[in-house]
Specification:
Helices cover 0% and strands 50% of the residues. It has 110 residues and is mostly beta strands. The strands form 3 sheets. Strands 3, 4, 6, 7 and 8 form a 5-stranded antiparallel beta sheet that branches. It has a 3-stranded mixed beta sheet with strand order 5-2-10, with no helix packed on it. Strands 1-9 form a two-stranded parallel ribbon. A hairpin with a 5-residue loop joins β6 and β7.
């Protein structure tokens, strides 16, 4: 559960697999962001929440051998809290999924 104005960070990670890896982030099957990584096996992005951001989030990871989809994580965004004008953000949330394996090219060689 989160409040409007909170920051949320979506993380996806492939623990194994050949690079580059293309990550895509979705909310309720609506595409949000695509990030390609060439040196690390993790990707993330952050945004400030509004009431419209409630829903189920998931990511996909693809290194050329077909995408793998994470489990969905549900996020419920409620109304705005009352805070003084110059108050720092109230909270930061993180939704994380780690893929155990993305098939590496060497897996298909004799």
């Amino acid at each position: 559960r989160a409040l409007e104005g909170d920051m949320v960070t979506l993380h996806c990670e492939a623990q194994r697999g050949s690079l580059p890896i293309q990550y895509q982030f979705f909310r309720e099957d609506v595409f949000l962001k695509e990030i390609e990584v060439t040196s690390l096996r993790t990707s993330s992005f952050s945004f400030s929440l509004t009431a419209e951001h409630s829903g189920n989030y998931y990511c996909t990871a693809d290194n050329g051998f077909g995408p793998q989809r994470s489990k969905a994580v549900s996020l419920s965004v409620t109304g705005k809290p009352w805070v003084p004008a110059n108050h720092p953000p109230l909270a930061q949330f993180s939704l994380t999924h780690s893929f155990k394996n993305l098939f590496a090219l060497s897996s298909f060689l004799p």
